[in-house]
Each structure stands twice: as C-alpha cells, then as structure tokens.
C-alpha cells in the first residue's frame, strides 16, 4: 500500500547513514522493521558489513534474529552510534509522540543511549502541535494504576487502559500497564512531561522531547530530511 511504500522510502534513506563498525539501535514498529529488512538485504549482498544491531523490544529481537543480522545488547554496548526508530506524531520542532507499539520505555532508554536518533516516518505522522492526532501513552506499574488514571485526568486527559482484542490489559516487556492519555493539542509538552514524570508509579511517557536528531519523512514527492 502507499503508506508502506513511503515507510520503505524513509527507511532506505536512514539505512544509508549506517557505516561499517557501527552499533545500530533499532526501535519498534512497522516503519522501524522496514529499516531492518533494508539492512538485511544490504548485509546479504555484502554491501554493508561489520555492524551489530541492538533491538529495543522482544518482538524486534525475534524479527532481527530471523533475518540473521548480528545482534547485541545495550549491556554489551552502553553507547549506541545511531538508532533508527519510528514515531506516531512529529511536530515542527521534531518533538515526538511515540508508543503506539507499546515499547516506548525501552525505545526512550535506547534513544538516550544513542549518539544519533534518526526517526523515520511517512508523511501522515507530521502534525502542527503534539497531541492533535495521538494520545500520549503512559507506562504505569499495576499497583495503584487507577490512582494514576485519576491523576492524569486532573492534567486534562481522557484516559484509557490499553487492552488487547480480548479486553485483557496489555503488558509491556517490563510487565507494566499502558494508559493512553488523550490531551488534545499540547501547548507546553515540556511542562506536561514534568507533571507526568513527577508521580510515583508512573514509569515513562511517550513524549520524546529534544531526542530526535533528525526526522526522515517518506512523502509522495520523495523523501524530506528534517534536522533539528
Ligand atoms: O511504538 C512506537 O513508538 C513506534 O515506533 C510507533 O511510534 C511507530 O510505529 P509505526 O512505525 O508502526 O507507525
């Protein structure tokens, strides 16, 4: 479909930034996986070698293992040269909402451990103000999660516990719960991020502020490379 084509376009451009000897972080989601497919074919044809990939989620570890790309972990490589990841919403300052795939705690840890954080998106993710399009996911421990939901509502959100198709709560790789918080357009994301993180029991949120070094956008007209 058109969207997949735009994701592949952005992914191929991002993979061009990978140089031999690099430790490459890989985020989670349907766009990040396109970068893994692209990397795998370059690896097979010998166009790229001497790299090792650090996936951020159990799911992406499995996908990367299937494709036979050398893998490692943050424990072995606490500093990563370049990470490629997706996003759900991107504003003009390259601030992001991430977490549609539920792996944003690990993704943010990986992003903060990376020298360069390359975000790849199709053009549908661009937004004038964060929150216009997506709810902000918040990871909470299960103890007292309803108290967190009440608190997040006082911050102005409509809060929904993320469930699977049979209405069981989704558990993250860490075994925590996710509350999707729809704030609408967020005038001051930095202030909101501080309010969310200031609460015991709230582990992390999907506002990635000042973390993306660059955003590569697959558009119908081609590819745009946005830099901070
Ligand atoms: O969960 C995540 O943070 C993903 O990166 C998500 O934000 C983007 O997923 P997509 O590439 O499948 O749209």
- Report the order of strands and helices: HEHEHEEEHEEHEEHEEEE
**Overall number of strands:** 13
Main-sheet strand order equals: 2-1-3-6-12-13
Largest sheet composition: 6 strands, mixed
Attached small molecules: D-4-phosphoerythronic acid
**Separation, N- and C-terminal Cα atoms:** 30 Å
Shape: globular
Radius of gyration: 17 Å
Count of DSSP helices?
6
Q: Decide which structural class fits the backbone.
A: alpha/beta
Uncertain residue segments: none
Classify the beta-strand content into a percent band: 25-35%
The averaged pLDDT comes out at 96
Question: Roughly what percent helix?
Answer: 25-40%
List the helices and strands and how they pair.
Blueprint: H1 2-15, E1 23-26, H2 32-44, E2 52-55, H3 58-66, E3 80-85, E4 89-90, E5 96-97, H4 104-112, E6 114-122, E7 136-140, H5 145-154, E8 158-161, E9 177-182, H6 189-197, E10 202-205, E11 207-208, E12 214-219, E13 222-227
Parallel strand pairs: 1-2, 1-3, 3-6, 6-12
Antiparallel strand pairs: 4-5, 5-11, 7-9, 7-10, 8-9, 12-13
3D structure, described in words:
The protein is of the alpha/beta class and 228 residues long. Helix content is 28%, strand content 26%. The chain contains six helices and 13 strands. β1, α2 and β2 form a beta-alpha-beta unit. The longest helix is centred in the N-terminal third of the chain and has 14 residues. The protein starts with a helix and ends with a strand. The structure holds D-4-phosphoerythronic acid. The site of D-4-phosphoerythronic acid (DER) has 17 residues, from α4.
């Amino acid at each position: 479909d058109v969207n997949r084509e735009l994701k592949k376009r952005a992914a191929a451009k991002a993979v061009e930034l990978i140089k031999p000897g690099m430790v490459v972080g890989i985020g989670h989601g349907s766009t990040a996986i396109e970068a893994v497919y692209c990397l795998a074919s370059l690896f097979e044809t010998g166009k790229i070698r001497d790299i090792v990939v650090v996936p951020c989620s159990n799911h992406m570890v499995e996908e990367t293992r299937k494709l036979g790309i050398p893998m490692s972990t943050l424990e072995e490589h606490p500093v990563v040269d370049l990470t490629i990841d997706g996003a759900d919403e991107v504003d003009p300052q390259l601030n992001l909402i991430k977490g549609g795939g539920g792996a944003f705690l690990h993704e943010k840890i990986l992003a903060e451990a990376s020298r360069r954080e390359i975000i790849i998106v199709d053009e549908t993710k661009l937004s004038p103000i964060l929150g216009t399009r997506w709810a902000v996911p918040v990871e909470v421990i299960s103890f007292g999660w309803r108290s967190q939901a009440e608190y997040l509502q006082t911050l102005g959100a409509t809060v929904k516990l993320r469930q699977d198709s049979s209405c069981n709560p989704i558990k993250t790789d860490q075994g925590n719960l996710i509350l999707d918080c729809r704030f609408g357009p967020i005038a001051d994301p930095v202030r909101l991020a501080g309010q969310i993180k200031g609460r015991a029991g709230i582990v992390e949120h999907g506002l990635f502020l000042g973390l993306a070094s660059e955003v590569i956008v697959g558009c119908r007209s081609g590819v745009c490379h946005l830099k901070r």
